[in-house]
Known about the structure:
The complex is a heterotetramer, with 2 copies of chain A (336 residues) and 2 copies of chain C (323 residues).
Chain A: E1 2-5, H1 6-20, E2 24-28, H2 54-58, E3 63-65, H3 70-82, E4 86-91, H4 101-108, H5 111-114, E5 124-129, H6 144-148, E6 154-156, H7 161-173, E7 178-183, E8 190-193, E9 206-209, E10 214-218, H8 222-235, E11 240-244, E12 247-249, H9 253-263, E13 266-270, H10 278-289, E14 299-302, H11 312-318, H12 322-334
Parallel strand pairs in A: 2-3, 2-4, 4-5, 5-7, 6-7, 10-11, 10-13, 13-14
Antiparallel strand pairs in A: 1-8, 6-12, 9-11
Helix pairs in contact in A: 1-7, 3-4, 8-12, 9-10
Chain C: H1 5-30, H2 45-52, E1 60-62, H3 68-74, H4 78-85, H5 119-133, E2 139-144, H6 151-163, E3 167-173, E4 176-177, E5 180-181, H7 182-185, H8 192-198, E6 202-207, H9 211-228, E7 232-237, H10 257-264, H11 267-277, H12 283-306
Parallel strand pairs in C: 1-2, 2-3, 3-7, 6-7
Antiparallel strand pairs in C: 4-5
Helix pairs in contact in C: 1-2, 1-3, 1-11, 1-12, 2-3, 2-9, 4-12, 5-6
The complex binds thiamine diphosphate (TPP) (2 copies) and magnesium ion (2 copies).
One thiamine diphosphate sits between chains C (64-66, 114-117, 144-147, 174, 176-178, 244) and B (29, 68, 70, 92, 96, 99).
Amino acid sequence: xxVMNIREAINxxxxxxxxxxxxxxxxxxxxxxxAGTAGGQEAIGGIWGTSTGLIGKFGPDRVIDTPISxxxxxxxxxxxxxxxxxxxxxxxxxxxxxxxxxQLINQIAKFRYMFGGKARCPVVVRLIYGAGMNSAAQHSQxxxxxxxxxxxxxxxxxxxxxxxxxxxxxxLHGDDPVMFFEHKALYxxxxxxxxxxxxxxxxxxxxxxxxGDVTIVAFGRMVxxxxxxxxxxxxxxxxxxxxxxxxxxxxxxxxxxDSVEQTxxxxxxxxxxxxxxxxxxxxxxxxxxxxxxxDAPPECVTAPHTPVPFSPxxxxxxxxxxxxxxxxxxxxxxxx
Amino acid sequence: xxVMNIREAINxxxxxxxxxxxxxxxxxxxxxxxAGTAGGQEAIGGIWGTSTGLIGKFGPDRVIDTPISxxxxxxxxxxxxxxxxxxxxxxxxxxxxxxxxxQLINQIAKFRYMFGGKARCPVVVRLIYGAGMNSAAQHSQxxxxxxxxxxxxxxxxxxxxxxxxxxxxxxLHGDDPVMFFEHKALYxxxxxxxxxxxxxxxxxxxxxxxxGDVTIVAFGRMVxxxxxxxxxxxxxxxxxxxxxxxxxxxxxxxxxxDSVEQTxxxxxxxxxxxxxxxxxxxxxxxxxxxxxxxDAPPECVTAPHTPVPFSPxxxxxxxxxxxxxxxxxxxxxxxx
Amino acid sequence: xxxSKDGLLRAYRRMATIxxxxxxxxxxxxxxxxxxxxxxxxxxxxAAVGVCEHLDSDDMIVSTHRGHGHCIxxxxxxxxxxxxxxxxxxxxxxxRGGSMHIADTSIGMLGANGIVGAGAPQAVGAAIAAKxxxxxxxxxxxxxxxxxxxxxxxxxxxMAAVIKVPAIFVFENNHYSEHTGDAYAVxxxxxxxxxxxxxxxxAWRANGCDFYSTFEAMAELxxxxxxxxxxxxxxxxxxxxxxxxxxxxQRYRAKGEVARxxxxxxxxxxFRASAVTKTYLSTDELDALDAAVGEExxxxxxxxxxxxxxxxxxxxxxxxxxx
Amino acid sequence: xxxSKDGLLRAYRRMATIxxxxxxxxxxxxxxxxxxxxxxxxxxxxAAVGVCEHLDSDDMIVSTHRGHGHCIxxxxxxxxxxxxxxxxxxxxxxxRGGSMHIADTSIGMLGANGIVGAGAPQAVGAAIAAKxxxxxxxxxxxxxxxxxxxxxxxxxxxMAAVIKVPAIFVFENNHYSEHTGDAYAVxxxxxxxxxxxxxxxxAWRANGCDFYSTFEAMAELxxxxxxxxxxxxxxxxxxxxxxxxxxxxQRYRAKGEVARxxxxxxxxxxFRASAVTKTYLSTDELDALDAAVGEExxxxxxxxxxxxxxxxxxxxxxxxxxx
Lengths: 336, 336, 323, 323
Ligand SMILES: Cc1ncc(C[n+]2csc(CCOP(=O)(O)OP(=O)(O)O)c2C)c(N)n1
Ligand SMILES: Cc1ncc(C[n+]2csc(CCOP(=O)(O)OP(=O)(O)O)c2C)c(N)n1
Ligand SMILES: [Mg+2]
Ligand SMILES: [Mg+2]
């Protein structure tokens, strides 16, 4: 075990994977940075600090700075994967899935099925996502809901450094395309990370906390907000189960249902707007499969049905926060 | 009133709008057809028969055949709308939203909000969608779930000729961007259509049937399948409320909740795969807001979590059909 | 250029296979035997074969919605293709793909594609893999005159030039994208190949209705690409003999256009003419090949008709490798 | 070319306003006064102003993430911009857009855009509207050397050429896209303008650090576009004086690069030099303008600091015109 933040955990995992497996390549805009400049590529180390040191070790044939051409980036990753490689494509902002959407939803997602199960397309797309930095409507979105909706894509979103390593490493060993969501506001979050070839299987929740009175299912950055809310509630003797699904596709339905069967109460916390999102998805799951267990109406705590606003005051109102979660939990308990 | 099919209703509405309002233009691939060929543009009349006769009447400055460049098509529509026009952009297949996703989800959807409420972007995007013609994974998708998830877009999907006219006409009068979904298997469906400037306001369901025992919410082509299932159930004296939401954004929550409050039973029928879709969306709505009314677990009848397969046998298994709806209704009645 | 007799016979057989495969599909589709919608490649045989005769199974291609010809030229199993098009469980893609989605990655056929322009970036990625393998292999994207207007195609060309990989962009200009003429839809000042040149790569031009012309230009191009690992492009002037898809009334055609094309621009005819005059091959040999191919196609259709149908339960298979 | 004194003073004032606006933001951002991330336009003033001085409010522009200069040049209210960048309720976009999303459609400024390459197709649509209005108006897309690699930019150029509308593609080549040099990322054989030519449109080239050079090339270009309703392009060789965004450590720069650029490629300096030698304007007049602009910017910052903040409840406004 060593302590590091999520940025470092991702960086380390990429280093390890590229070391271990020569078919792993990284491509994206400024993943090294500095190509064609006086400063040169080793000076930069990527925009987000997650690819630091890679170009020096593995060179420009494996750490590929690209033009601003997201369709070509993801498309090239798709083609390289069909040809036997394991490409990691970086989308500097998850907001850019619209620019390369077809390669995600009609290509990578469908090859295996459409081509009769023989083609293999193990692309890992790293999507840097999320609000909280006043980056406004086109650089703050979460969008994991849209990709969770697509059969053929797996979707992961770690909220701890250990899971960042474990899930990314798992993705880099699997044969399926994985959409790997990294929250920009979580990069600095620290924690213990197991050494070596540590993997976290997809489709298994992390029980972030066990409390027994209410089930909170929270995604990505929302996990820590749920924890804050739970701390407050604990002062009043209210115990929360906090479930971090870690992957939304596959989703560990059982763990969620098990918890709700105990607590009878569900609060889902999602950074996306409410319509056709994961809050609805999990709520519908529970309504269908744990119908008799529910003692109160399920609660969805989500962003509002608006674009992400720029101004700090507005963005704070936009992002679901601990107070909203706390209130929702109390509503489920006060109900009836 | 006159009787026509959905194709004709759309064609007539486009004719009327272009006649009435010189700022209405139509653009897309082969919306006229025949540009740069010996046959000439009037010979073709569009791929789907929905734009027949337009080029002859309104000429190539208003009925614009484009190169195969969906981003430029929707982007040009966006720019023309910001500049004061009312463009109608045709996406030959809804499956192509990935190719022009950014213009839909980050541009058209956000201008009004992001630019302080002053910009107006009344683009109508016509998306031809749906399975049932053995067109395989990349030409059969519904995808209205993905666009319903996006704040700033309105989403309509008529299932009758009258609604096709009324909703399209409404879209062409409004100041918001509208994603208008036309099911290819419904084009030939006939019905009475009111004359003149007939409009159907968004956010109001059509009660396709009132039965009182079970609430079926069905989208697009699924409405007719729900009707078939309801005919069968009627033989056993089971009465179904069939709700055709007509627009998924805005969604007429009240009408759905009212019906469930009466029936206590909900079946949602959606042509999309199950994750983060409208079946989950409506189920979550009801679970939250009509919790005490539900007498049985809600049922979601959707496509499976797979791409659309080519083979007729497989596609039939893929598309939710009357038997699956009937079975779901019976499950809600037999429950407990 | 020197040709071997075997090589020429093989090329002819491939072209004849494509032609007969497509002509036969045209008939069977008219009978209502085949589900979905189908884009026939007849008329463009010299393009697919003139390109692919240079390749082995380590070289890779990505194809289009009009992919039967590329598949056959690259060596896909004709029986498996026919079964796929019929939607059989025994098809190359288990009946899940159909006409527009045939692939066999094991022989470097990375997939036909229903999305116009989606393939070109994928060829760039395959070219990254080809370069990494270090054996002078290449990756080829087939695109049409319509696809050359899709942003992805441009991005792919630029990226291939920037990252310097052996990607080859083959533009089959059959002068139509669906119902629209290239004279309208391609804004290019000169020709499609000149677009590739504007991205800083070398480009060739050839007659895509003539095997020799395409084959020889590709020989030069491949010499260049295999030795430099740099991208290149070629524009092939070619024709399609059927509609955009089966069922297309083709009202955009000039009167008698198809008859004229079949007279003047038939790759099989022109091959026969030159092959015979150049004395490598006799008319008898070619006739014999035609007959053999005819039997092969008959057998393929017979087999496809009888092949196992998918079971509804199969719909859930193979979405993921593991779940 | 003949210049009027008023015209030159106006152009200088606009350029000085952009420069001081950006220099001041640079200071205020360092103090932590301003939320979000901000891309400064300083160094490229001659480009925005050299283009926009030809336009009136019926001509339209679409801009980029680095949009302050375009906004000011097109006539956006400087106070309103500053308030927007501060995130105030009184900002041009009510604080919902911020630095990257300033727009004022009422004066033909159709929007800055955070998505690289998104603007070019929008300019094609605006050009459709311009052509329909029939008054010789144009629509202009500003793009960078980075944006010239985005598929949407190519599609837009092709479509403008095909449908024949007065769209103008202005490429501001400041030689960097984020941390990458154009020497790497632009595969183009010749220059960016040559890409536009490959799509069949006329293209110009000018010095985007020199007002006269840009202005004169644009005069020619606009004559051509307004009279033909055909698209055109121009590549402007220019420089950015700050990082890609505020906070960028700029490790990709050569040693002393910015100092050299400020010495040799400063549009305000070069304007002063020629303006004075050409005797239209005196140094005093320009100094007075600088001072006036300085006060205007002071007032704008003061006002932005004091302006009303949004209320959390405002988050729900204006998503739709009607719901
Ligand atoms: C992204 C996308 N847009 C539109 C279509 C519909 N479509 C299918 S084929 C085609 C024409 C393609 O023309 P071209 O590239 O010249 O190929 P050809 O059909 O001539 O072989 C179009 C528009 C599509 N499949 N994908
Ligand atoms: C589609 C998309 N990809 C990537 C980015 C991230 N990004 C913002 S600005 C920029 C560089 C743009 O370079 P250029 O077009 O030269 O404009 P400049 O910054 O030099 O003004 C990048 C990559 C983005 N905003 N949108
Ligand atoms: Mg073609
Ligand atoms: Mg630049």
